Amino acid sequence: MGGRKKIMKKVLIAGAGLSGLTLAYRLKNKGYEVVILEADEKPGGRIQTIQTEHQTPLEMGATWFGEKHVNLLSLLGELGIEKFRQHDKGIALFESMSFVPAQHFDIPPAEEPTFRIKGGSSTIIEKLIEKTGRESIHLNTAVLKVEDRGTYLLVSDNHQREWQADQVILTIPPRLLVNTVSFSPELPSQLTGIMQNTHTWMSESVKFGLSYTLPFWRNNGYSGTVYSQSGPIVEMYDHCNFEENGYGLKGFLSGSVQQLDQAERKQQVISQLIKLFGNDTPADGSYYDRVWSREKFIHFPYEGYILPHQHNGHPVYRQAYMNGKLRIAGTETAPAFPGYMDGAVAAANHIAQQL
């Protein structure tokens, strides 16, 4: 006698960032049919690695992690992705005021080392896409509406297409989600109120990077670490690659430079580097930056002040809605390390275990 035919459940995931892709990978391994809708023209979300002309992977998004980030480390091991320790040997610089020379000091070895992903953070994105199947991802496709049709959910996108799914998981940052997607019936007011006031991690950051033909700072005894209260660079770190044949510096700029164009930001950064490292600072550096508040598929402007990590990991994000067919994931929903890569993986793991 033939056995009963197994019906494959279809899951629709909104967002091809680390949470969405990890979840797709987990669910495909469990036998689910998965489709991913990504509003942007590229996958990765807040993981964005630029491969520069000097063969230096520069991170414009998520970069560092530690030994406490066990969910991320477990996934890296599972996917065969290597990590390496952040370089911090040498003299660090602290700039307290623009008219005072920077202080030189040695940073003691960190008790908890910081790591980066070999080849760049986007390595994990590419590996997950490879495992999940590129054909499962639909780019330039934004979710506009989710309707409960009883036995399934109906999702409408920006191309006037409709998608049916047994389960829908939204990995869009909560504040962006509540302001760009409509629901029928409407979601509970407690949930939408929390979403409106949930901080989107990194969305106000201005990140920059420079790649060089030589690591001039290392050659002069500097670690590449800079802290400044006079800006525009407020933090900076060595960003050479694992093989140490691609050389770079990477850090954060003051929010005050957001209104400048990229050429003006570059000019101010180069001027500060010359002031910090001397007139022999090479002129061949290639400059890149990312103003994350301009990323419309990540950031939705705040109406007032929201604290860093506000409502990240709130209990409302651990519940299912629309009679168990709708769930919200993404790094801001994780109760531990929300906003970080580890939180993104943990949120995906939680949903995969629930289904």
Overall description:
- It is a single chain.
- This protein is an alpha/beta fold.
- The protein is 23% helix and 27% strand.
- The protein is built from eight helices and 22 strands.
- The strands form five sheets. It has a seven-stranded mixed β-sheet with strand order 8-7-17-18-19-16-20. It has a six-stranded mixed β-sheet with strand order 10-2-1-14-22-21, with helices on one face.
- A hairpin with a 5-residue loop joins strand 3 (49-51) and strand 4 (57-59).
- Helix 1 packs parallel to helix 3, helix 1 (18-29) packs parallel to helix 8 (341-354) and helix 2 packs across helix 8.
- The longest helix is centred in the last third of the chain and has 16 residues, at 262-277.
- The model is unreliable at 1-7 (pLDDT under 50).
Per DSSP E runs of 2 or more residues, the count of β-strands stands at 22
Placed side by side, the strands forming the largest sheet appear as 8-7-17-18-19-16-20
Please tally the helical runs, counting DSSP H or I stretches of 4 or more residues: 8
Helix/sheet category: alpha/beta
Distance between the termini: 30 Å
